[in-house]
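Whiteboard transcription, Tuesday session. T.W. wrote the C-alpha coordinates on the left side:
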Protein backbone atom coordinates (compact mmCIF):
# COMPACT_ATOMS: atom_id res chain seq x y z
CA UNK A 1 0.00 0.00 0.00
CA UNK A 2 1.35 3.43 -0.89
CA UNK A 3 0.64 6.78 0.78
CA UNK A 4 1.65 10.21 -0.53
CA UNK A 5 2.04 13.09 1.93
CA UNK A 6 2.39 16.69 0.73
CA UNK A 7 3.41 19.50 3.05
CA UNK A 8 2.01 23.05 2.75
CA UNK A 9 4.11 25.57 0.85
CA UNK A 10 5.97 27.84 3.26
CA UNK A 11 7.93 31.04 2.64
CA UNK A 12 11.48 31.82 3.80
CA UNK A 13 14.12 34.35 2.86
CA UNK A 14 17.14 33.63 0.68
CA UNK A 15 19.53 36.46 -0.23
CA UNK A 16 16.93 38.88 1.05
CA UNK A 17 14.26 37.60 -1.33
CA UNK A 18 11.12 35.54 -0.76
CA UNK A 19 11.88 31.85 -1.29
CA UNK A 20 9.24 29.12 -1.32
CA UNK A 21 9.70 25.56 -0.06
CA UNK A 22 7.62 22.40 0.25
CA UNK A 23 8.11 18.65 0.78
CA UNK A 24 6.70 15.39 -0.53
CA UNK A 25 6.86 11.95 1.08
CA UNK A 26 5.95 8.62 -0.49
CA UNK A 27 5.48 5.79 2.00
CA UNK A 28 5.09 2.08 1.30
CA UNK A 29 5.12 -0.89 3.62
CA UNK A 30 8.75 -1.43 2.65
CA UNK A 31 10.30 1.99 2.20
CA UNK A 32 9.85 5.73 2.54
CA UNK A 33 11.30 8.40 0.24
CA UNK A 34 11.19 12.12 0.95
CA UNK A 35 12.08 15.08 -1.24
CA UNK A 36 12.26 18.83 -0.62
CA UNK A 37 11.69 21.48 -3.27
CA UNK A 38 12.49 25.16 -3.47
CA UNK A 39 12.10 28.13 -5.82
CA UNK A 40 11.81 31.90 -5.80
CA UNK A 41 8.40 31.45 -7.46
CA UNK A 42 5.57 29.66 -5.69
CA UNK A 43 4.08 28.07 -8.81
CA UNK A 44 7.47 26.65 -9.81
CA UNK A 45 7.99 24.86 -6.50
CA UNK A 46 4.56 23.26 -6.88
CA UNK A 47 5.33 22.20 -10.46
CA UNK A 48 8.62 20.61 -9.35
CA UNK A 49 6.85 18.65 -6.61
CA UNK A 50 4.04 17.55 -8.91
CA UNK A 51 6.54 16.27 -11.50
CA UNK A 52 8.49 14.33 -8.86
CA UNK A 53 5.37 12.72 -7.38
CA UNK A 54 4.14 11.75 -10.85
CA UNK A 55 7.48 10.05 -11.56
CA UNK A 56 7.75 8.11 -8.32
CA UNK A 57 4.17 7.50 -7.19
CA UNK A 58 3.85 4.10 -8.90
CA UNK A 59 7.30 2.72 -8.16
CA UNK A 60 7.48 -0.57 -6.32
CA UNK A 61 10.07 -0.57 -3.57
CA UNK A 62 11.36 -4.07 -3.04
CA UNK A 63 13.84 -5.00 -0.31
CA UNK A 64 14.14 -8.66 -1.30
CA UNK A 65 17.38 -9.87 -2.91
CA UNK A 66 15.78 -12.70 -4.88
CA UNK A 67 16.25 -12.67 -8.65
CA UNK A 68 12.57 -12.29 -9.56
CA UNK A 69 11.92 -9.33 -7.23
CA UNK A 70 15.10 -7.50 -8.17
CA UNK A 71 14.58 -8.09 -11.88
CA UNK A 72 11.05 -6.65 -11.70
CA UNK A 73 12.31 -3.77 -9.57
CA UNK A 74 15.02 -3.07 -12.18
CA UNK A 75 12.43 -2.94 -14.97
CA UNK A 76 10.04 -0.62 -13.15
CA UNK A 77 12.53 1.64 -11.36
CA UNK A 78 15.47 1.75 -13.78
CA UNK A 79 14.38 0.86 -17.32
CA UNK A 80 10.83 2.24 -17.33
CA UNK A 81 11.79 5.83 -18.17
CA UNK A 82 14.53 4.91 -20.67
CA UNK A 83 12.70 2.66 -23.16
CA UNK A 84 9.68 2.90 -25.45
CA UNK A 85 6.36 1.61 -24.14
CA UNK A 86 6.36 -1.42 -26.44
CA UNK A 87 9.85 -2.35 -25.26
CA UNK A 88 8.77 -1.99 -21.65
CA UNK A 89 5.84 -4.31 -22.33
CA UNK A 90 8.26 -6.92 -23.73
CA UNK A 91 10.39 -6.62 -20.59
CA UNK A 92 7.34 -7.20 -18.39
CA UNK A 93 6.29 -10.17 -20.54
CA UNK A 94 9.74 -11.69 -19.97
CA UNK A 95 9.26 -11.29 -16.23
CA UNK A 96 5.70 -12.67 -16.20
CA UNK A 97 6.13 -15.59 -18.61
CA UNK A 98 9.81 -16.46 -18.50
CA UNK A 99 10.95 -15.83 -14.94
CA UNK A 100 8.24 -15.23 -12.30
CA UNK A 101 6.99 -18.82 -11.98
CA UNK A 102 10.39 -20.55 -12.17
CA UNK A 103 12.40 -21.72 -9.10
CA UNK A 104 15.39 -19.53 -10.04
CA UNK A 105 13.23 -16.43 -9.44
CA UNK A 106 13.23 -17.22 -5.70
CA UNK A 107 17.02 -17.51 -5.48
CA UNK A 108 19.14 -14.62 -4.31
CA UNK A 109 21.21 -13.28 -7.19
CA UNK A 110 24.52 -13.92 -5.39
CA UNK A 111 23.62 -17.63 -5.10
CA UNK A 112 22.84 -18.23 -8.80
CA UNK A 113 25.56 -20.27 -10.51
CA UNK A 114 26.33 -20.65 -14.18
CA UNK A 115 24.86 -24.18 -14.03
CA UNK A 116 21.65 -22.80 -12.48
CA UNK A 117 21.39 -20.28 -15.31
CA UNK A 118 22.02 -22.91 -18.00
CA UNK A 119 19.40 -25.29 -16.59
CA UNK A 120 16.91 -22.43 -16.32
CA UNK A 121 17.44 -21.34 -19.96
CA UNK A 122 17.10 -24.97 -21.04
CA UNK A 123 13.82 -25.31 -19.13
CA UNK A 124 12.36 -22.33 -21.00
CA UNK A 125 12.53 -24.23 -24.29
CA UNK A 126 9.49 -26.39 -23.45
CA UNK A 127 7.03 -23.47 -23.70
CA UNK A 128 8.91 -20.70 -25.56
CA UNK A 129 10.37 -20.15 -29.01
CA UNK A 130 14.13 -19.83 -29.43
CA UNK A 131 13.80 -16.20 -30.46
CA UNK A 132 11.81 -15.40 -27.27
CA UNK A 133 14.37 -17.20 -25.12
CA UNK A 134 17.20 -15.31 -26.83
CA UNK A 135 15.48 -11.97 -26.16
CA UNK A 136 15.03 -12.94 -22.50
CA UNK A 137 18.66 -14.03 -22.22
CA UNK A 138 19.82 -10.63 -23.48
CA UNK A 139 17.66 -9.00 -20.81
CA UNK A 140 18.95 -11.26 -18.01
CA UNK A 141 22.53 -10.46 -19.01
CA UNK A 142 21.74 -6.76 -18.99
CA UNK A 143 20.20 -6.99 -15.52
CA UNK A 144 23.22 -8.77 -14.06
CA UNK A 145 25.57 -6.24 -15.66
CA UNK A 146 23.60 -3.52 -13.88
CA UNK A 147 23.75 -5.52 -10.63
CA UNK A 148 27.54 -5.92 -10.93
CA UNK A 149 28.03 -2.23 -11.76
CA UNK A 150 26.04 -1.33 -8.64
CA UNK A 151 27.92 -3.80 -6.41
CA UNK A 152 24.88 -6.03 -5.84
CA UNK A 153 26.78 -9.13 -7.01
CA UNK A 154 30.17 -9.97 -8.48
CA UNK A 155 29.23 -12.58 -11.08
CA UNK A 156 26.99 -12.76 -14.16
CA UNK A 157 25.82 -16.40 -14.38
CA UNK A 158 24.27 -15.79 -17.83
CA UNK A 159 27.39 -14.21 -19.39
CA UNK A 160 28.72 -17.31 -21.18
CA UNK A 161 25.36 -18.68 -22.37
CA UNK A 162 24.70 -18.35 -26.08
CA UNK A 163 21.68 -19.26 -28.18
CA UNK A 164 21.91 -19.65 -31.92
CA UNK A 165 18.70 -18.86 -33.77
CA UNK A 166 18.52 -19.68 -37.45
CA UNK A 167 16.90 -16.66 -39.01
CA UNK A 168 14.36 -17.44 -41.67
CA UNK A 169 15.03 -15.50 -44.87
CA UNK A 170 12.53 -12.70 -45.34
CA UNK A 171 10.22 -13.25 -48.25
CA UNK A 172 9.11 -10.67 -50.78
CA UNK A 173 6.03 -10.79 -52.98
CA UNK A 174 6.85 -11.67 -56.58
CA UNK A 175 6.10 -9.22 -59.38
CA UNK A 176 3.06 -11.30 -60.34
CA UNK A 177 1.80 -11.36 -56.73
CA UNK A 178 2.45 -7.63 -56.46
CA UNK A 179 0.26 -7.01 -59.52
CA UNK A 180 -2.53 -9.16 -58.05
CA UNK A 181 -2.41 -7.16 -54.80
CA UNK A 182 -2.44 -3.82 -56.65
CA UNK A 183 -5.37 -4.91 -58.81
CA UNK A 184 -7.35 -5.93 -55.70
CA UNK A 185 -7.06 -2.61 -53.89
CA UNK A 186 -9.81 -0.02 -53.56
CA UNK A 187 -8.00 3.27 -54.10
CA UNK A 188 -10.70 5.27 -52.33
CA UNK A 189 -10.39 3.23 -49.14
CA UNK A 190 -7.83 4.57 -46.61
CA UNK A 191 -6.88 1.08 -45.39
CA UNK A 192 -6.13 -0.08 -48.94
CA UNK A 193 -4.25 3.14 -49.60
CA UNK A 194 -2.01 2.41 -46.60
CA UNK A 195 -1.20 -0.99 -48.15
CA UNK A 196 -0.51 0.67 -51.50
CA UNK A 197 1.72 3.33 -49.95
CA UNK A 198 3.85 0.77 -48.13
CA UNK A 199 4.31 -1.19 -51.34
CA UNK A 200 5.39 1.80 -53.46
CA UNK A 201 7.52 3.54 -50.83
CA UNK A 202 8.83 0.85 -48.47
CA UNK A 203 7.33 2.65 -45.47
CA UNK A 204 6.77 0.63 -42.32
CA UNK A 205 3.16 0.21 -41.21
CA UNK A 206 3.53 2.71 -38.37
CA UNK A 207 5.13 5.22 -40.75
CA UNK A 208 2.27 4.89 -43.24
CA UNK A 209 -0.44 5.34 -40.62
CA UNK A 210 1.30 8.38 -39.10
CA UNK A 211 1.36 10.32 -42.40
CA UNK A 212 -0.37 13.70 -42.41
CA UNK A 213 -1.59 15.56 -45.50
CA UNK A 214 1.33 17.98 -45.17
CA UNK A 215 3.80 15.06 -45.35
CA UNK A 216 3.07 14.81 -49.09
CA UNK A 217 5.26 17.39 -50.81
CA UNK A 218 4.01 16.94 -54.37
CA UNK A 219 6.37 14.16 -55.39
CA UNK A 220 7.64 12.74 -52.08
CA UNK A 221 6.56 11.52 -48.65
CA UNK A 222 8.11 12.80 -45.45
CA UNK A 223 8.66 9.92 -42.98
CA UNK A 224 9.63 11.62 -39.73
CA UNK A 225 7.29 9.87 -37.28
CA UNK A 226 5.51 6.63 -36.45
CA UNK A 227 2.07 5.71 -35.18
CA UNK A 228 2.27 3.34 -32.27
CA UNK A 229 0.11 1.74 -29.60
CA UNK A 230 1.43 2.61 -26.16
CA UNK A 231 0.64 0.23 -23.31
CA UNK A 232 -0.93 1.81 -20.24
CA UNK A 233 0.75 0.07 -17.34
CA UNK A 234 -0.57 -0.56 -13.86
CA UNK A 235 2.79 -1.09 -12.24
CA UNK A 236 1.46 -2.50 -8.96
CA UNK A 237 -0.39 -5.37 -10.59
CA UNK A 238 1.90 -5.58 -13.63
CA UNK A 239 -1.06 -5.65 -16.00
CA UNK A 240 -1.90 -3.63 -19.08
CA UNK A 241 -5.01 -1.58 -19.67
CA UNK A 242 -6.41 -0.52 -23.01
CA UNK A 243 -3.62 0.66 -25.29
CA UNK A 244 -3.11 4.34 -25.94
CA UNK A 245 -2.52 5.68 -29.44
CA UNK A 246 0.64 7.76 -29.77
CA UNK A 247 2.69 9.45 -32.48
CA UNK A 248 6.40 9.40 -31.79
CA UNK A 249 9.47 10.66 -33.62
CA UNK A 250 11.67 8.21 -35.50
CA UNK A 251 14.18 6.37 -33.34
CA UNK A 252 17.19 6.95 -35.60
CA UNK A 253 18.41 9.65 -37.98
CA UNK A 254 18.40 7.16 -40.85
CA UNK A 255 14.70 6.40 -40.29
CA UNK A 256 13.84 10.07 -40.70
CA UNK A 257 13.79 10.48 -44.48
CA UNK A 258 12.04 11.92 -47.53
CA UNK A 259 11.02 9.30 -50.11
CA UNK A 260 10.30 10.20 -53.75
CA UNK A 261 7.36 8.15 -55.08
CA UNK A 262 6.26 7.18 -58.64
CA UNK A 263 4.19 9.62 -60.71
CA UNK A 264 1.06 7.45 -60.62
CA UNK A 265 1.36 7.23 -56.82
CA UNK A 266 1.60 11.02 -56.63
CA UNK A 267 -1.70 11.33 -58.47
CA UNK A 268 -3.36 8.75 -56.22
CA UNK A 269 -2.20 10.66 -53.11
CA UNK A 270 -3.39 13.96 -54.64
CA UNK A 271 -6.82 12.41 -55.26
CA UNK A 272 -6.88 11.24 -51.65
CA UNK A 273 -6.13 14.74 -50.36
CA UNK A 274 -8.90 16.21 -52.56
CA UNK A 275 -11.31 13.60 -51.18
CA UNK A 276 -10.34 14.51 -47.59
CA UNK A 277 -11.01 18.21 -48.25
CA UNK A 278 -14.40 17.46 -49.81
CA UNK A 279 -15.44 15.13 -46.97
CA UNK A 280 -14.31 17.68 -44.39
CA UNK A 281 -16.46 20.35 -46.01
CA UNK A 282 -19.47 18.01 -46.06
CA UNK A 283 -19.07 16.98 -42.42
CA UNK A 284 -18.01 20.29 -40.92
CA UNK A 285 -14.42 19.03 -40.62
CA UNK A 286 -15.49 16.01 -38.55
CA UNK A 287 -14.24 13.46 -41.11
CA UNK A 288 -10.54 14.29 -40.71
CA UNK A 289 -10.01 17.24 -38.35
CA UNK A 290 -6.30 16.49 -37.89
CA UNK A 291 -5.47 16.07 -41.61
CA UNK A 292 -4.40 12.44 -41.22
CA UNK A 293 -3.66 11.12 -44.72
CA UNK A 294 -5.24 7.73 -44.03
CA UNK A 295 -7.82 8.42 -41.33
CA UNK A 296 -10.64 6.31 -39.90
CA UNK A 297 -13.63 8.20 -38.49
CA UNK A 298 -11.54 11.21 -37.60
CA UNK A 299 -8.61 9.33 -36.07
CA UNK A 300 -5.74 6.99 -36.93
CA UNK A 301 -6.47 3.61 -38.51
CA UNK A 302 -6.26 0.73 -36.05
CA UNK A 303 -2.94 -1.06 -36.74
CA UNK A 304 -4.43 -4.52 -37.29
CA UNK A 305 -6.80 -3.45 -40.07
CA UNK A 306 -4.24 -3.12 -42.92
CA UNK A 307 -2.71 -6.46 -41.89
CA UNK A 308 -6.10 -8.21 -41.89
CA UNK A 309 -7.01 -6.61 -45.22
CA UNK A 310 -3.75 -7.70 -46.88
CA UNK A 311 -4.21 -11.22 -45.55
CA UNK A 312 -7.72 -11.32 -47.03
CA UNK A 313 -6.45 -10.11 -50.44
CA UNK A 314 -3.79 -12.83 -50.42
CA UNK A 315 -6.37 -15.51 -49.57
CA UNK A 316 -8.74 -14.32 -52.33
CA UNK A 317 -5.93 -14.46 -54.91
CA UNK A 318 -4.29 -17.69 -53.71
CA UNK A 319 -1.14 -15.81 -52.72
CA UNK A 320 1.02 -16.97 -49.82
CA UNK A 321 0.62 -14.35 -47.09
CA UNK A 322 4.07 -13.13 -46.07
CA UNK A 323 3.19 -10.50 -43.40
CA UNK A 324 2.54 -6.79 -43.89
CA UNK A 325 6.24 -6.02 -43.40
CA UNK A 326 6.90 -8.10 -46.53
CA UNK A 327 5.54 -5.14 -48.54
CA UNK A 328 8.56 -3.15 -47.38
CA UNK A 329 10.84 -6.06 -48.23
CA UNK A 330 9.16 -6.25 -51.64
CA UNK A 331 9.92 -2.56 -52.27
CA UNK A 332 13.62 -3.08 -51.47
CA UNK A 333 13.66 -6.21 -53.64
CA UNK A 334 12.27 -4.23 -56.62
CA UNK A 335 15.03 -1.63 -56.06
CA UNK A 336 17.65 -4.38 -56.15
CA UNK A 337 16.13 -5.94 -59.28
CA UNK A 338 16.21 -2.50 -60.94
CA UNK A 339 19.97 -2.21 -60.24
CA UNK A 340 19.50 0.74 -57.89
CA UNK A 341 22.65 1.43 -55.87
CA UNK A 342 22.56 -0.38 -52.48
CA UNK A 343 23.54 2.89 -50.77
CA UNK A 344 20.56 4.68 -52.34
CA UNK A 345 18.32 1.76 -51.34
CA UNK A 346 19.60 2.00 -47.76
CA UNK A 347 18.68 5.70 -47.66
CA UNK A 348 15.21 5.12 -49.14
CA UNK A 349 14.50 2.23 -46.78
CA UNK A 350 15.82 4.08 -43.74
CA UNK A 351 18.09 1.23 -42.71
CA UNK A 352 20.60 2.21 -40.03
CA UNK A 353 22.79 -0.78 -40.85
CA UNK A 354 24.05 -1.17 -44.43
CA UNK A 355 24.25 -4.95 -43.92
CA UNK A 356 20.44 -5.08 -43.60
CA UNK A 357 20.09 -3.67 -47.12
CA UNK A 358 22.86 -5.87 -48.50
CA UNK A 359 21.12 -9.02 -47.22
CA UNK A 360 18.35 -8.33 -49.76
CA UNK A 361 20.79 -7.51 -52.55
CA UNK A 362 22.85 -10.67 -51.92
CA UNK A 363 19.69 -12.78 -52.08
CA UNK A 364 18.69 -11.15 -55.39
CA UNK A 365 22.17 -11.71 -56.85
CA UNK A 366 21.97 -15.40 -55.93
CA UNK A 367 18.66 -15.68 -57.81
CA UNK A 368 20.14 -13.88 -60.84
CA UNK A 369 23.05 -16.33 -60.85
CA UNK A 370 20.66 -19.29 -60.82
CA UNK A 371 18.66 -17.80 -63.71
CA UNK A 372 21.89 -17.31 -65.68
CA UNK A 373 22.83 -20.97 -65.25
CA UNK A 374 19.32 -22.00 -66.34
CA UNK A 375 19.85 -20.10 -69.60
CA UNK A 376 23.06 -22.02 -70.16
CA UNK A 377 21.12 -25.25 -69.63
CA UNK A 378 18.58 -24.16 -72.24
CA UNK A 379 21.36 -23.46 -74.73
CA UNK A 380 22.86 -26.93 -74.10
CA UNK A 381 26.34 -25.41 -74.25
CA UNK A 382 27.70 -27.85 -71.66
CA UNK A 383 25.79 -30.93 -72.83
CA UNK A 384 28.01 -33.98 -73.39
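and on the right, the sequence the group agreed on:
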Amino acid sequence: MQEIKLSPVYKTKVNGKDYYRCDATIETSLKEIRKSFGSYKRYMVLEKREAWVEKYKDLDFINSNDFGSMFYNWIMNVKKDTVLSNTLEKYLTTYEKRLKGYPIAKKEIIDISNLDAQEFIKSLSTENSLSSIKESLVLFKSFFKYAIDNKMTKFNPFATIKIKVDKKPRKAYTIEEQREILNSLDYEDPVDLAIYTSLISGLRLGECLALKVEDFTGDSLNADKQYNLKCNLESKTNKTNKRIKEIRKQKTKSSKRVIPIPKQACQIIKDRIIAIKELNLKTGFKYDPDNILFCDKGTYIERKRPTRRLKKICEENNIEYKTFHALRHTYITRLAESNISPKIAQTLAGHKDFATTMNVYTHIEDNIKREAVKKLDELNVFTI
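Someone added at the bottom: Residues 235-241 have pLDDT under 50 and may be disordered.
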